[in-house]
Amino acid sequence: MDQTSLLWLFVSSLLFCTTNQACLTVSPSRSQLFKGEFVSLSCEEDDSSAGWKLRRNTTRETRKECGDGWGKSAGSSCKISYIHTMDSGVYWCESREGATSNSINITVTGGSVILQSPVLPVMEGDDVTLHCQTKTSNLPADFYKDGSLIRTEPAGHMTIHHVSKSDEGLYKCHSSSHGESPSSWISVTGKPTTTAPPPASEAPPPVSEAPTPGHEAPPQLVFRLVCHLVVFCPYFISTLLMVSLYRHRPTGNDPPVSMVITQPTRGEQGLDDDYDNIIPSVTTEYHF
Ligand SMILES: *[C@@H]1O[C@H](CO)[C@@H](O)[C@H](O)[C@H]1NC(C)=O
Ligand SMILES: *[C@@H]1O[C@H](CO)[C@@H](O)[C@H](O)[C@H]1NC(C)=O
């Protein structure tokens, strides 16, 4: 997978995430992993005081929190330094009040082949590319959906154009040299109607040769990015303003006379540190 497609995946998962209260992302961004890989899961949230924690269901246990027998918890993220096949399961973030994020199915294989498929649901109408791969390269492979052969791809990847609800299902791939991948469920969600303007033209997008797992057409993407920037900029600017106001607070307004009066009563050392404390005490002295 080249850098552009990785960027597309990243941007689309960001967009997916900003529409949710909290969003679970996984790195590497795959739902199938090789045994022994390092995996990092994080809850991207707006409100860190809500105490979002990772939880999972596996075949052995349910609702187990990160750090309680699995993973290493750090704030609202969780790291697994060596993932095992028994770590396969469904993962999600849950707040202290019981609110939940999206959930992600993770399958860990002890074999040498995985199907690389989208971790997050695919938007209706987008293109999705599946890769059949080893740790190092794509494999010529047969692709299956719900147990039936759908395509044979010598290059090791297949693209489904304009995904619809009927493409939802359980996918896997099989390589004659390396064997079969686990199966992964691909889910398709309807396009949100309020967040994007209607497409500028009705012409179908050009079919490209390169794998294009981008989940959204560029004009809509730019529109949504701008929306999110507009939402976040006031936060950012007011934070900067508050920080700079705070930094300037001690200088300027304090009457110089208080310095003159207090100097003899205080030691030379630590004067600067006590500066803030001195002024209120002097003011109260004046009131008596
Ligand atoms: C985890 O397991 C519990 C108990 O079986 C179930 O109620 C819950 O829906 C599961 N969570 C997910 C995200 O599958
Ligand atoms: C996880 O997999 C099960 C079937 O294997 C499927 O029903 C479910 O929708 C999947 N969940 C997600 C979040 O993809």
Automatic annotation (TrEMBL):
UniProt GO cellular component terms = external side of plasma membrane
Keyword check for Signal, yes or no.
yes
Segment Disordered: which positions?
A: 171-214
Q: What is this protein called?
A: Fc receptor-like protein 5
Record-linked Pfam families:
Ig_2 (PF13895)
Q: Which GO terms describe its biological process?
A: cell surface receptor signaling pathway; immune response
Q: Which PANTHER family match?
A: FC RECEPTOR-LIKE PROTEIN 4 (PTHR11481:SF64), IMMUNOGLOBULIN FC RECEPTOR (PTHR11481)
| Domain spans labelled Ig-like | 111-189
- Secretion signal span: 1-22
